[in-house]
Amino acid sequence: MPNITLSRKQQLAFNVLADPYVVELLFGGGAGGGKSLLVTMWMVIECRKYPGITIGLGRKEMSNLGKTTVATLLTEAHKYLGVSADDFTYKAPGSPQPGIYYKNGSAITLHDLAYAPSDPNYDRFGSLPLTHAVIEEVGELDLTAVSAFASRANRKLNREYSITGKTVMTCNPSNNFAREEFYDPFEKLGGGDMQSWPCGDVFVDGKLRIGQSKSSGAIRYGPTHTSRQPRAEPPSTS
Ligand SMILES: Nc1ncnc2c1ncn2[C@@H]1O[C@H](COP(=O)(O)OP(=O)(O)OP(=O)(O)O)[C@@H](O)[C@H]1O
Ligand SMILES: [Mg+2]
Question: Which residue among 40, 123, 128, 155 has its CA within the 20 to 30 Å range from the CA of 168?
Fold first, then answer.
């Protein structure tokens, strides 16, 4: 199995993703900084660790996901993590229920997050149970699309495994909602590599942690964003 050495920023993001208090991470930075590779490696590790989970992977245009992120996942993340061709099946964008389906029952499902006039409130995500939500190139999207998709996290085996459902987003610097929700607070807090701030409540180890301060509740990491909705225990599981 080939070795990989994570960059300092990738290592930071990886550590943040292992923290059960963290509910949102915006992984920003310039093109080629290794965001997609880190995020795909994290998804594969989660899928291998927790049989049966579903991670939703979305982007404005699903066809772009197939050409970029999924290509990175299949050719690089799988290689570095020792996933072989018979460990999974891949349904490409365009086929029914596109995604990467692992032998242990876990899946990374692919989703088109583009606005459609026939579905202005994104009702198409209404019954989608996800463990985590991952959104690539969040700068292409508005907050409605991102919030609708992100709200589906925490609904698939999170309680059973005590997994904090996370919304993980990547972007290049952009002027959309991510600036206000992530970059502005990040800069106010002093900038640097990353900053974190409280963003509501979260269940950790079966206990509700009230988000009054950075060390007691849910955390958003940035350059990163979050809505104020509490991240309570999942309402239903399947
Ligand atoms: N830690 C690493 N070690 C070796 N190569 C790496 C590492 N991280 C990333 N790369 C290489 O850099 C390439 C670009 O990385 P990646 O696609 O993850 O960047 P990105 O930040 O998502 O870029 P973009 O903003 O264009 O989406 C990868 O395909 C991979 O080959
Ligand atoms: Mg990328």
Answer: 123
Residue 12 beta carbon below 6 angstroms from any ligand 1 atom = no
Q: What is the H or E stretch that residue 54 is in?
A: strand 54-59
Pocket test for ligand 1, best of 36, 76, 136 (most atoms within 8 A of CB): 36
Interval 163-175: pLDDT, tens: 999 999 998 877 7
3-state secondary structure of 6: coil
Distance from the CA of 192 to the center of ligand 1, in angstroms?
21
**pLDDT (tens digit, 9 = 90+) per residue, 76-88?**
999 999 999 999 9
- Ligand 2 center from residue 235 Cα (angstroms): 32
Residue-range domains of the chain with CATH: 8-222 (3.40.50.300)
| Residue found under tokens 């809505």 | 227
Q: β-strand 167-171 against 132-135: which pairing, if any?
A: parallel
